[in-house]
Amino acid sequence: MRCIRSVGRLAAEAGLEVQQIQLGEVPLMAEATDAQLADFRKRLENEGFELLDDRNKRLVMEVKNLIINEIHHNSGKKTETVNFSDFLAKETGHEYSQLSKLFSAVESLTIEKYIIAQKVERVKELLVYDELTLSEIAWKTGYSSSQHLSNQFRQVTGLTPTQFKAEHRKHRRKPLDEV
């Protein structure tokens, strides 16, 4: 939300009127002048953002947003029920092979590895919440078993889920009323 607010503020400072800002998208109410876009680009870069006016970069950002939304915000549905190649092709209107080649060229990473990285981040989040068993987390994140989840988690993080959980507990922040 901070990113969205920041981008909204920067657009207003550049004299741009936006419709509704979403992660990775800032549709404008009216056509922007070259000077406004240049000002907006400069303001974004000063804050560590990037204006994606290249069609290929926008498509890659769309793919990333679709993956993130499906993995992190799918309202408890099992991720495995999603065939990402079909899902991405349908949502973007492009063949998956085209998306895959473009994504790899722009990101120097395959879509599959990006999906795995996002799933591992979701697993980390669920482990920290400490509300579900490892089997429940595996099911919720689309792994065929807790063993498959553990193996992939270890490959990506160098830790088992149990080790990650223990490490996180050691370094957990104190509540403000305990400081």
Describe this structure in words.
With about 180 residues, the chain is mainly α. It has two domains: about 1-45, no CATH class; about 55-170, Arc Repressor Mutant, subunit A (Orthogonal Bundle), CATH 1.10.10.60. Helices cover about 65% and strands about 0% of the residues. It has helices at about 1-15, 35-45, 55-70, 85-90, 95-105, 110-130, 135-140, 145-155, 160-170. Helix 6 crosses helix 8 (about 145-155). About 15% of the residues are buried.
Number of self-contained structural domains? 2
What CATH calls the topology of the largest domain is Arc Repressor Mutant, subunit A
Structural class: mainly alpha
**How many individual β-strands?**
0
Q: What gross morphology would you assign?
A: globular
Summary tags:
179 residues, mainly alpha, 63% helix, Arc Repressor Mutant, subunit A, 9 helices
Give a brief description.
With 179 residues, this protein is mostly helical. Helix content is 63%, strand content 0%. 15% of the residues are buried.
Q: SSE layout and pairings?
A:
Elements: H1 2-13, H2 34-46, H3 55-72, H4 84-92, H5 96-107, H6 111-129, H7 134-140, H8 146-157, H9 161-170
